[in-house]
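Standup notes
- HV: blocked on the assembly model, inputs below
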Amino acid sequence: MKKAETSFSELLQSFPPEEGSIIPLLQNAQARLGYIPEEAVEVIADYLKLTESQIFGVASFYSQFRFTEPGRHSISVCLGTACHVNGGATLLETTERELNVKPGECTADKRFDLNRVACLGCCALAPVVKIDGEIHSKVNVINLKEMWNHYD
Amino acid sequence: MNLTINNRTIQIEKAVTVLEAAEKNDIYIPKMCAHPELTPYGGCRLCIVEIDGRRGYPTACTTMAEEGMTVRTDTKILREMRENLLQLILSEHPSACLLCEDIDGCKEFQSTIRKVGITTGCRWCPKDRDCELQKIVESFNIHQLTLPGLYRDLPIEKYDPFFDRDYNLCIYCGRCVRICSEYRKSSVLALKQRGKQTTIGPAFTDNHTDAGCEYCGACVSVCPTGAMSEKSRKWWGVPESYVQSVCPLCSLNCEIQVLTAKNKIVGTLPPGLPHESAGDLCVKGRFCLSELVNRTERILEPIYLFPEGNGIVVWDQAIDKAELILSNIQTERTAVFLSPDLSTEEYEAVRLFSEKVLKTSEITSSCFDSNLIAFSRMAMKSASIETVKDAGVILSFFLNGNYNYGPLTLAIKTASDNGVPYYQTGWIKDTTSRFARHRFVPVPGEEVSILDEILKCLKDGKTNKPEILELSDYLIKAGKGIIVAGPEMMSLSNCQLLLEKIETLAIITKSQIFMPLPYGNLKGMLSVIQLKPFEDVLNKVEKGKFDLLYFIGDAPFSSRPEVKYILYQNSFPAPEGLNPDLVLPAALWGETGGTWAGSNGHSQPVVAAALPHNYALSHQEILIKLAEKMQNKEFVTDAKNLISGSLKAKKPMLPALKEVQKITVPSKPDPDFPYVLVEEISPHRYHNLNLSKGISGFGELVRTDQLMMNPSDARKLKIKDGDSVEVVNKKIIKTLPVTIRKNITEGFIHLNTSNGMRGFDCNPCYVDIRRVHV
Ligand code: SF4
Ligand code: SF4
Ligand code: SF4
Ligand code: FES
Ligand code: FES
């Protein structure tokens, strides 16, 4: 993360140390790194004399900011009520175990990032897993693993 | 200003919201997110009202009262709308019990099935009968849920000390987030994401400690639901009484209320209504006191050291044994050791007892070393918290306000938020650091040089540091300077030199000094007893000048010194190797009344909140029992006349200050010893108990006997949290575990020693850190 810090200290100086600088600084960080790592928030917080939570609170209000490193593909496992009762949690567990990744993180080979969501709005098809834009319905552990093969 | 609420004409004086106007006149408007300490939020919408001439249904908490306004708070349509809002809230809030037909029977008979991991209804909730949501719903006659229920199934957060969080019960009123930033100025919590995904907590992690939480408990106090609950008070139910008292854990002596249930002390809160007051307490006053009183390792009955070993005895037998010992001792052959956290009456009783029964003047306290004597000279004239709030400029030296001195750090943060310039000098980042205009990091061993530079700049206006110039300017022009001298300084080799310079700076700039001390009633102790310096008494112990050592609260020996008899009177067990001849169980704070000298000069009398534990007796009662046995009528009469709460602190008696000791200036930086070790003798004590050792939650926050280092140093050294390393200087090697903390300055290693003694020859000193090879 050293890189993030050095490029950042120059960037920081070009913004006044006040609350209004949060959004432009975060946008810059995201543009450079593709996401906003914890270290960047730490540096920004230090500079603006705010806490990381204050920055995070503002930033996470806008869905354009992401705080996790993106993988090439993005898996979202639904844990809404309908999906939950139909085995969503098992799908999540399996994904975590088989791909060795935790929700909010991305695999070591950057192939997948994993997220959990609460209801994707298609409960009739539960349990549902979304990969990139695509909804996969009535997923079970077997076709779940099969499905990954289509994404490289 | 006049307005009408529900056909009643109401007069108000100053600008208030409609909600406040109504509440002041005992007109009830349901509310959930509004809170007297916080700016209006308008989140829950339960406080909607009708106002003539206004469209829609404005929320009373965000609408200012105006002349001539006509407000209705309780119409049919408002009731319906509120019911709908409650239905919305309940659809996401585990509410089985609110709607259960057997609710009345259940309240009465099912009180024992409460300790469950997951809350599905009120009977299984730690806030049962103390919950604002419950009260409101009950006033509404809701018997059915009209919306499908949703359980968020969020993991319950139990891994942080002192309080648990179950956000499945959260109604997103945002009080916790707002109190933490608006009032406590800590901004640990944030509302993260939005809409359905909203969660509450610190950035990135869910771990409060790493996010800088002070465990002040303000968020827990103001939470209207069971989402936040105190670990130790969770299943005690609604407290039965709230007794006014003061905190004995530092010189600020914060006012607190002691909560009791079933004649036990179950918790403490800041003054004010339980859900309304955020308070200024620190974690010690807010969470540690009740845990101290209820520690399982308390002395429960008298113990006598028989030739065969320790045995429990009844009080009468114990007093017989004590008499045997005491009647064998000559004048001035007893040394008395006191802890600095007894009540002033207890000190007076000890003074009388020493004079009349023990016939000795050798009274001391292990805290009373030469650095403290130097410190006390100034601390007794310490400014008040009010003057800190009102300061023109604030300057702190070696203040580590983390988990400590709540009102002081809050006053600094609030003042700084209002534009008062604040400068900090020291190595550790604390809760005030974010508010500092500039943080001076002194060169180890040359800590005074910053003071010298300021003093020089004040004199001739010359300095090459812009911050010093700015600061000197403020000191001259802004006036009302406050210099905070942190007690962390007492562990430094250069302590007395620093103090001299601070005093000079204060005199020159007409600033006041604020000195918090980690002792609950040092002032009271010094105002009734002429203490001997600890080093002097220790010397005499070593030279065999005493036959009896009488420990009252204090216990500065880890093994038994060469002496005929040891009497140990305390609430907590003696250090393992001390082997006292007789152990007498004493009541502690909260179980006895008495006066606390208080930091602001006014003495604070308090009453007991609960009865002493088991067979414990108050220190006075024990001394009276002993004197009665020894037929010392004079003491008995005097001690019985000592009415609790009657002793005002007088002028403290301090021994003359000796020559400033020769100082061991740390060796200059040496490539072989690249790190700076700053050692602090852990100041968090009550009697002989170190809070980090005695209260596990506190031990997680203030790590003792561990090396605390910055994450980037740890990365460089390839050390993980919890690894053991060797810390080495030219003379000493120690192996200790590492804790990684962001608030440690790079290049510095902090060590909090719990046994009251510094492990290294000078402080700070240069060291090397070596990984231990297994
Ligand atoms: S305990 Fe205090 S500092 Fe910690 S989150 Fe709650 S209000 Fe903030
Ligand atoms: S945790 Fe409590 S105080 Fe915080 S938003 Fe939820 S209900 Fe309100
Ligand atoms: S600041 Fe001192 S007196 Fe106040 S709660 Fe903390 S330890 Fe107790
Ligand atoms: S619960 Fe998964 S799509 Fe609605
Ligand atoms: S109390 Fe007014 S909107 Fe919540």
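- HV (later): unblocked. Residues B 247, 249-250, 252-254, 281-282, 284-285, 405-407 surround iron/sulfur cluster (ligand 3) (CB under 6 Å). Chain B has a mean pLDDT of 91.
- Next: hand off to the docking folks.
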